[in-house]
Amino acid sequence: MPRRSADKRANRAGTYYRRRGHWYVQVTGIDGTRSRPIKFPGDWSEEQIAKKTETLAALAQDATRSTAGSMRDTVSTWFSRWFEERTSRGIVTAKLERGRFTKWVPAELAAKLMVEVTKGDLEDFVERLDRAALAHAAAEAAGEKVDHAAMMSWKSAINVWTIAKTGFDDAHNAKTRSLRVLDRNPAAEVHGPDKGAVKARSSLSPTKLLAFVGRDDVPILWRRVVAIAAYTYLRASELRGLRWADVRFGDGYILVHHTVDREGEDGTTKSEKPRQVPIEAALLPLLRQLAKGKEPHELVIEIPDDRHLARALRTWLRYAGLDGPELQRSATQAALTYHDAGRATGITWRAIRRDDHLRIMVDAGHADFETTLKYVRTADMLRAGYGDVFPELPDALLSEPLTGAPAGDASTRNHWRKYGGGAGNRTLVREASNATSFTCVVAVSPATELADSAATYLSLSRPRYRERSRVIQPS
Questions:
Q1: Looking at the whole model, is its pTM more than 0.70?
Q2: Residues 23, 4: contact at Cβ < 8 Å?
Q3: What is the pLDDT of residue 320?
Q4: Are residues 294 and 419 in the same domain?
Q5: What is the pLDDT confidence band of residue 96, given thresholds at 50, 70 and 90?
Q6: Do 429 and 290 fall within a single domain?
């Protein structure tokens, strides 16, 4: 069949033709370039392919709906533009979403033109995610090491698919018109990855939390972080961005409105709404002690080891003799994380205390009441014989931190040098004129090897805290 014009105008914005049993369409973008031939099923009627050609040609020529060359966007290039647009709108999860999608999208799908992606392509993608989730579950059931390069939990698989499905929906009908490159959403009728078994999660009981924060041979910074996180149930990013100006001692609450991610970038809360968290009476002495001599713009506390929070916390829990089953990962139970020890512990305690459920939801910053109910159900199972929640914290938290590494095996001492030293090993002096920089002064004892760890600590710090450092020898 001879090539036919789908647009009778002189610029011939779109043409279609048949070859080897398939229809092919080419359109001209607003920059004058012709697209690659786009293949469509051969059983389409000529009326259907003509209509499709007109649609693609109009989209290519509409400067308000398509950037130059967008009809030639591959999945990879379009999603890059999409993630950048989401970042510019202040969506705090955009960076994490980019990493997840980039890691798991198949190379053959990433190289395809957006307009060439079919329902079958995305069904193949979902099958790949399902295989990775099944391999992950099988490895955990057998007690084998999980290969995170090729395996993922079923929940992560669903998260990756949600990113892809949302992206293709925006490619069809985004609020930002320059992202619209499709006249249909190929992901609309694709079923996502299968759900797996929900793992049991743990939190810290008052007895275990007191046992941990009362150990004077555990880094004071870790003990204070866990105490504050549990008693305020702030997310890690929220605690990382908390400043003394937000701690309203006179009014009895903490204003949560600002976050700092582990890369040091500022943002808003997950729900993008500020909230007020009541200050527990047992936490007041610690906060008042830490606030002495501090300026309003200074951070309340530095979270140590930003990239290995869960792993580092479990190391210190084991060192403190709290090596219970909650620290072990299995096919039916998740290992305790920083989130579990801090935020989940505090919310569970409030439910055990029988605080009003709606009040818990608001104070915790939950967008969905069902999320709050998960903690309420857990509290109902734990309440009997659980003990008094939010107990008074030990005076040891108010004292000066230890100097030097603790006793124990070489692995523990090395972990201390890398992640655990308190102000006795390094004193962070923040300049009042510039809240994003400080001088890291590392006091070195001749009897320890902390001098060698100074550079290690600085390399592990967030980029905005790497400005200046010096090592001094005590006289």
A1: no
A2: no
A3: 85
A4: no
A5: confident
A6: no
Question: Which residues form the domain of 31?
Answer: 4-61
- Could you tell me the CA-to-CA distances from 357 to 8, 118, 233, 365, 383 in Å, in that order? 65, 45, 15, 12, 15
Is residue 193 in a domain? no
Q: Say what the pLDDT of residue 148 is.
A: 85
Q: In the numeric block, which tokens belong to residue 272?
A: 């993008």
231 lies in the same domain as 360: yes
pLDDT digits (tens, 9 = 90+) for 234-278: 999 999 999 999 999 999 999 999 999 887 888 889 888 999 999
